[in-house]
Protein: Fatty acid-binding protein DegV
Amino acid sequence: MAVVVVTDSSARLPDDVRQKWAIRQVPLHILFDDADLRDGVDEVPDDIHLHGGATTAAATPTELSDAYRQALADSGGDGVVAVHLSAALSGTVGAAESTAADLGDGVRVVDSRSTAMNTGFVALAAARTAADGGDLDAVARAAAAAVRRNHGFIVVHRLDNLRRSGRIGGAAAWLGTALSLKPLLRIDEGKLVLAQRVRTASKAVATMIDRVCAVVGEHSAAIAVHHVANPDGAAEVAAALAERLPSCEPAIVTDLGPVLALHVGAGALAVCVEVGE
Structure:
């Protein structure tokens, strides 16, 4: 058997990639109109990010426990590595750690200190090591090493979702400034923080592309481009990165998903980067 990797639906791993590497997934939740919708399981309105009354919730202890117990059984005792979105952005890691403690030493929880495909890249690093026959310690080490190689940036077009989200560190001082402000955000120590204030969306996106290229430099890198109701913008970012970083594989392009979309709003564009070793 082999170590089994579990993640959550924030990771935005395409279905074919999850299936190829046998990565399990637990859903995050959207609470809307008295309904509890499971991301990736239940049908969620495409425009959920436009509904001010919708909120998000972490994976439940029951869901985590069920997923980990099944993964443990399927691993034949080799163990489970659970990779989840940043503890600074969700309560999922806390619930995962409590659940893992109840199940013994066979489950290791890794805080990706990020979200979206930055979490996905960490899960993939763990799954590749598991597929190569790595034991529980080796798979957990591979995940932890991937955390340190990840960088995330996002351009947000709407400020109202940010105001409601409460997920933006140090936001109070600048969220109320000029309406034309298009903030470039980055992931720092697991938190979403302001990287730069830019006056136009096009300049913000150009600045994001510049920062991604600076992070990659002469290295190889895995790249993902995400969007919220902005597929054309995502395609343009992916094309620009392909032109400027020809040594990298083409970017994975996916939507950001309903849970994350609720926090950043329509039009958002994000780039997740895992720099090669």
